[in-house]
């Protein structure tokens, strides 16, 4: 399917270029060559190639569409706008590109053009729900009053954007008293949403000289809030306050992007976050959200996210979160030593960052080192709500290191603190089964885990393996087949199923399962599977 799509795209290009078909034979700078280079390129190189291709073929919608997508993802406002204008001129304007054209009107302070763009968006079903909020923000650029929106004590998800933006609009228009009250009524039980709203509101008030009112909104004790208080006390701008329609649009787009990130909708989140950046380029919160959206994409997206996070980590308010994201990205991109070095540097002043070092060490297979680090964290914060999690982490790391005798007491202690944790029940139950200890108790743990989280392939595998070790091969096969169906491609589950098939006399099926496991296996597991495929089980 991908190959057909690419051929069709090139065919459209050739059909539209006309005289440039001959030009394509003359050298590497033809529109066709530039387009092809852009299609196979990545990151900055692709953006440059698309920019050149669009210059060579200014009326070709296929080139414009790909240039637009690449430019938005790469954060190149000039190219994205030029491509969107080409799409509009050629009759191929996409719904999201209409939002970009609205942002362009805001950047130009052309309120009449912005109103016209909003009317176009309203006629499109895709983003029409944004129009009332964006229209309200547009009143900052005119003498119009925003539409009346009643304050609600209970908010639905559909109300959230309207109510938040209305509160911030009140502050931006100079209604500090009522706007502050409105902000305080929103999200009292939601730390994430409340923090972003209160920081933005406080920044808006501080920029208007209302520093006491701004500080009164900052009631939390998280790093960003404390840092924001310090900046306001020093009469320094947070660079996230809203005083224009563009700033309001940026808040709306970035807020939606943040929600999409939590839902795993990376590409849509990137688009909206980049639009927010185009609207408010100096806003560190918006840049951090864009980095977070890119972080759940491809390696090229992650590399772009790393660059953004590296810039934002210099910000006094959002730098802490950006530095944390940077460490995650370094690890994901394979620069684990650098990730550990930066995490260790931060760990000198933060016990949470010390725990992050333990996580990284565990992920790269240094389980004994990870267990020792988790012990340090536990010693620094005994008796708090995280103790059960830390005990679990220590036990898991020791088990992975091959020291079950040391691991079991930690897992048992963790279970007394968090008795209903399905992952812990699974870990302890599976460990007991593997080492032939308290088999009946182990099965009870696994059955309890399966009741709490019946869709978990890992728990299904553990239940199946427990039944295998007890000689209940029919029950083992039933559970392991479900585990394979849920998480096809896990070599350990496929190997377990093959073992169960073999003991049940289904030798052909067993070899198929082992062969499936062998595809993903390496090291000792691969050697073990080769022996099973050739000789079966003893």
Task: Name the descriptors.
disordered N terminus, mainly alpha, 538 residues, 31 helices
Give an overview in words:
The longest helix is centred in the middle third of the chain and has 18 residues, at 245-262. The protein has helices spanning 2-17, 20-23, 31-40, 43-56, 61-74, 77-89, 95-107, 111-123, 131-138, 157-172, 176-185, 191-207, 211-217, 223-233, 245-262, 266-279, 284-294, 299-312, 319-332, 336-347, 351-363, 367-380, 387-400, 404-417, 422-434, 439-452, 457-469, 473-486, 491-503, 507-520, 523-535. It is mainly alpha-helical and 538 residues long. The chain contains 31 helices and no strands.
Strand percentage lies at under 5%
- What structural category characterises the helix and strand content? mainly alpha
Helix percent reads over 70%
Low-confidence sequence ranges: 1-41, 148-155
- Outline type: globular
Number of strands: 0
**Helical element count?**
31
Terminal CA distance:
46 Å
Layout: helices, strands, pairs:
Elements: H1 2-17, H2 20-23, H3 31-40, H4 43-56, H5 61-74, H6 77-89, H7 95-107, H8 111-123, H9 131-138, H10 157-172, H11 176-185, H12 191-207, H13 211-217, H14 223-233, H15 245-262, H16 266-279, H17 284-294, H18 299-312, H19 319-332, H20 336-347, H21 351-363, H22 367-380, H23 387-400, H24 404-417, H25 422-434, H26 439-452, H27 457-469, H28 473-486, H29 491-503, H30 507-520, H31 523-535
Helix pairs in contact: 3-4, 4-5, 5-6, 6-7, 7-8, 7-16, 8-9, 9-10, 9-15, 10-11, 10-12, 10-15, 11-12, 12-13, 12-14, 15-16, 15-17, 16-17, 17-18, 18-19, 19-20, 20-21, 21-22, 22-23, 23-24, 24-25, 25-26, 25-27, 26-27, 27-28, 27-29, 28-29, 29-30, 30-31
């Amino acid at each position: 399917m991908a190959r057909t799509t690419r051929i069709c795209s090139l065919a459209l290009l050739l059909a539209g270029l006309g005289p440039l078909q001959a030009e394509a034979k003359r050298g590497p700078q033809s529109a066709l060559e530039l387009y092809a280079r852009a299609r196979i390129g990545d990151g900055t190189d692709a953006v440059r190639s698309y920019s050149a291709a669009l210059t060579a073929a200014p009326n070709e919608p296929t080139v414009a569409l790909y240039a637009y997508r690449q430019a938005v993802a790469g954060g190149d406002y000039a190219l994205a706008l030029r491509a969107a204008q080409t799409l509009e001129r050629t009759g191929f304007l996409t719904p999201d590109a209409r939002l970009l054209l609205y942002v362009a009107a805001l950047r130009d302070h052309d309120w009449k053009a912005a109103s016209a763009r909003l009317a176009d968006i309203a006629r499109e079903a895709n983003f029409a729900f944004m129009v009332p909020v964006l229209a309200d923000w547009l009143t900052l650029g005119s003498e119009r009053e925003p539409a009346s929106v009643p304050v609600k004590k209970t908010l639905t998800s559909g109300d959230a954007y309207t109510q938040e933006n209305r509160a911030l609009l009140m502050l931006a228009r100079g209604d500090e008293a009522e706007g502050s009250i409105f902000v305080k009524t929103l999200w009292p039980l939601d730390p994430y949403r409340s923090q972003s709203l209160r920081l933005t509101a406080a920044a808006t008030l501080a920029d208007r000289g209302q520093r006491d009112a701004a500080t009164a909104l900052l009631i939390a004790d998280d790093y960003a809030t404390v840092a924001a208080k310090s900046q306001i006390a020093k009469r320094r701008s947070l660079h996230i306050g809203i005083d224009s329609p563009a700033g309001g649009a940026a808040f709306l787009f970035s807020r939606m992007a943040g929600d999409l990130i939590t839902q795993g909708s990376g590409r849509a989140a990137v688009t909206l976050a980049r639009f927010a950046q185009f609207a408010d380029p100096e806003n560190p919160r918006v840049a951090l959200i864009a980095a977070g959206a890119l972080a759940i994409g491809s390696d090229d997206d992650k590399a772009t996210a790393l660059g953004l996070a590296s810039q934002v980590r210099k910000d006094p308010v959002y730098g802490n979160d950006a530095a944390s994201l940077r460490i995650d990205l370094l690890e994901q991109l394979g620069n684990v030593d650098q990730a550990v070095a930066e995490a260790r540097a931060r760990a000198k002043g933060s016990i949470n960052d010390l725990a992050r070092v333990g996580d990284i060490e565990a992920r790269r297979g240094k389980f004994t080192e990870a267990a020792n680090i988790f012990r340090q964290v536990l010693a620094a914060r005994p008796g708090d709500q995280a103790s059960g999690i830390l005990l679990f982490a220590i036990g898991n790391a020791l088990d992975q290191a091959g020291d079950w005798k040391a691991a079991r007491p930690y897992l048992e202690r963790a279970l007394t603190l968090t008795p209903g944790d399905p992952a812990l029940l699974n870990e302890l139950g599976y460990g007991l089964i593997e080492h032939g200890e308290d088999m009946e108790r182990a099965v009870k743990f696994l059955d309890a885990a399966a009741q709490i989280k019946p869709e978990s392939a890992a728990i299904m595998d553990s239940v199946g393996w427990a039944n295998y070790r007890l000689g209940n091969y029919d029950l083992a096969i039933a559970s392991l087949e479900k585990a394979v169906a849920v998480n096809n491609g896990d070599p350990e589950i496929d190997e377990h199923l093959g073992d169960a098939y073999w003991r049940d006399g289904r030798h052909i099926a067993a070899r198929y399962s082992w062969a499936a496991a062998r595809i993903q296996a390496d090291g000792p597991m691969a050697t073990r599977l080769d022996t099973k495929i050739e000789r079966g089980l003893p």
